[in-house]
Write a structure and sequence with these properties.
Layout: E1 5-8, E2 12-15, E3 24-31, E4 37-43, E5 49-52, E6 55-58, E7 63-70, E8 83-90, H1 98-103, E9 111-119, E10 138-139, H2 146-152, E11 156-157, H3 164-214
C-alpha cells in the first residue's frame, strides 16, 4: 500500500543543546494522497517534550510542520535517546473528533513510523551509517508480531501544556457564560413583571367596570 505521508527527517530528530535554553527540532509531514489524512504523534517520554500540534489533519498535497521543544534545557553530554512515533490514517471530512477517531482505528489502516532523537554535535561529522538501523515507514498489518505491539505500547500521547492565552480564553468564556445567565434571569424577571402588571390591570379594569354598572 502506498504511504499516506512523507516524513522528514525520516530517522533522527536532532536537538541542539545550548546552556540554559530549551532544545528545538522540527518535523515535516506531507500528505501524499488525494484525501485528508489525520496524524498523531507519540513519544516514549511525554513529560520531556512539547509538541505543537501533536494531533491534526493534513489536507491533500499539503505539508504540516510540527514544532518540538524540550520542556527543560538539556546538556550536550547527557544521555538522550527518546523516540517518537508518527501515526497517519485517512480521514473523512465528517470526522471531527480526533480523540474518538484514533480510538476506533483499525491498526491495519494506520501508517506508523518511529523516529529516534539525538543531540546535535557541533563541528563533528555525523555517522551516516545509521540508515539501515531504522525500518522505513510502513502500514501496520493486523497480524503484526507481539514484539511490534509491545514496542508500540512504549509510546504515549503528548499532553500539550496550558499557556497564558489558554487561561485568558477560559476566563473570557466563564465571564461570557455568567453574562448570558444574568441576561436570561433578567429576561425571565421582566417577563414575570409584565405578566403581573397585566393581571393587575385586568383586575383594575374589572373593578372600574363594576363601579360603572353600579352607578
Amino acid at each position: 500500500m502506498q504511504g499516506l505521508i512523507e516524513i522528514e527527517p525520516k530517522q533522527y530528530l536532532e536537538f541542539e543543546a545550548e546552556e540554559n535554553k530549551l532544545a528545538h527540532a522540527q518535523l515535516s509531514l506531507k500528505n501524499l494522497t488525494q484525501q485528508d489524512v489525520a496524524f498523531k504523534i507519540k513519544t516514549t517520554t511525554p513529560t520531556l517534550f512539547q509538541v505543537k500540534p501533536s494531533v491534526g489533519i493534513i489536507n491533500t498535497n499539503q505539508t504540516q510542520i510540527i514544532e518540538i521543544s524540550t520542556s527543560q534545557p538539556i546538556k550536550s553530554d547527557a544521555k538522550f535517546d527518546p523516540k517518537f512515533q508518527v501515526n497517519a490514517c485517512q480521514i473523512d471530512f465528517q470526522d471531527q473528533d480526533l480523540t474518538q477517531f484514533w480510538k476506533n482505528r483499525d491498526q491495519s489502516t494506520i501508517q506508523s513510523q518511529q523516529i529516534k532523537s539525538r543531540i546535535k554535535q557541533q563541528n563533528v561529522q555525523q555517522d551516516v551509517q545509521y540508515h539501515n538501523s531504522v525500518p522505513d515507514s510502513k502500514i501496520l498489518e493486523s497480524n503484526s508480531s507481539t514484539s511490534q505491539q509491545q514496542e508500540s505500547k512504549m509510546f504515549k500521547s503528548v499532553i500539550e501544556p496550558k499557556t497564558d492565552k489558554d487561561d485568558q480564553i477560559k476566563q473570557f468564556q466563564d465571564q461570557y457564560e455568567k453574562l448570558v445567565n444574568i441576561y436570561i434571569i433578567q429576561q425571565y424577571s421582566n417577563k414575570n413583571i409584565q405578566i403581573l402588571k397585566r393581571k393587575q390591570n385586568l383586575k383594575l379594569n374589572k373593578h372600574y367596570q363594576k363601579r360603572i354598572k353600579v352607578i
